[in-house]
Structures are given as structure tokens and as C-alpha cells.
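mind reviewing this stuff:

——
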Amino acid sequence: MVVPRPLCYSPLAMPDRDEHLRWTELSRRTLASNALFDLVAARRVSRSGKSGEFWILEARDWVTVVPVVHDPGGIRSFLMVRQYRHGADLVTTEFPAGMVEKGEDPSVAAARELQEETGYRSGRLTLISELRPNPAFMTNRCYTFLAEDLVPDSSLSPDELELLEPIALTLEEADARMGSGELVNAMTAVALMAYHRHLAASP
């Protein structure tokens, strides 16, 4: 019979109590670099004496935009994009998203990506989430912005190697289909969760 260990409940975000969990960096070297990220190998040691080499992606921050439109009947929809994703070898449906340029404010990047991928601009951008995509080996953050008061601005102007197809999905369709078919991008799922949390907190 396996007896489970008792659960240990402790307060979150207390740096003065977390020192026993931290690792100290002894050295690092760059293994590869490109426009998306630097791959580095960091040698680190724990407080208890464990040591090892860890590969880390020093990536640029990302933005995801949740563009919301309301039709005359009061139906709420999202502006989304369909595109081929090389990593998964799939066509996916996602919220507009992209990288934050060096020195660029995330809100500026969000407005730019919205215009480039949908041809719309937003009269109101609200930051609704800031998360770490994968803190196990990535250094970057992903900012999610709610885009409202949308107006047509121009035709699409995606990056040179982007091929996009805009699509509108109702809130109900996005909720029902998230996690299946084309709606399998994890950051899009996180953005939808952030949108619902924002709605619940709004007066």
C-alpha cells in the first residue's frame, strides 16, 4: 500500500521564503542565434549542491490580440485569422498575434499586429493578461490585449512569409470549438480564458 505524502500548502510569491528553491548561474554560452531567439546553455547549481547545464531560449516577448466586434443584433464575435503553422504542419485558427520588436511597447506591437493581420485598428486596447509561455526553458512574456471599438483601416499587410485568411467566429463558436480542429493554439486558448476572466470582473 502506498501512503501519499501530506500536502504542503504555502503562501505564494514570498521571495524571502523561496531561496532554497533558487539556482545560481555559474556560466553561460550561446549555442545559436537567429531573428526569433538566442539558444544559450547555462550551467547552474542549486542551494543543495545539484548542478547541471540547462538550455534556455532567450526569446522576444509576444502579444496576442482579442478583437471583439458587435453586430446590430448584439451578437459578439471575434476577428481571427487562419494560417499554416510550420511547427505543427497544420492550418490553425488563432487570434492575431506576433512578436514585440526590440524596444517596442507591447501595446504598440498589439495595435500593429491587429492592423497587419485583420486590416482593422482599435479605438481601445486593454491589457488583460501577462503570462510566461513556458518558464521551464523560455525567458519571454506573452501579453494579451482586448481590442474594442474596431474600425476598418486598410487592407491586410502581413509579413513577407505570412499567408493569412481572416475569419469571424462568434463567442459561442469559439468557446465550443476551442481545443479541437483548427483551434488548438495554446496561446489562443489562454487569451480566450483571459477574455472571460476580464468579462467576469467587469462591472
Summary: The chain has a mean pLDDT of 91. Strands lie at 23-33, 37-46, 51-59, 62-70, 76-85, 90-94, 97-99, 120-131, 142-152, 164-170.
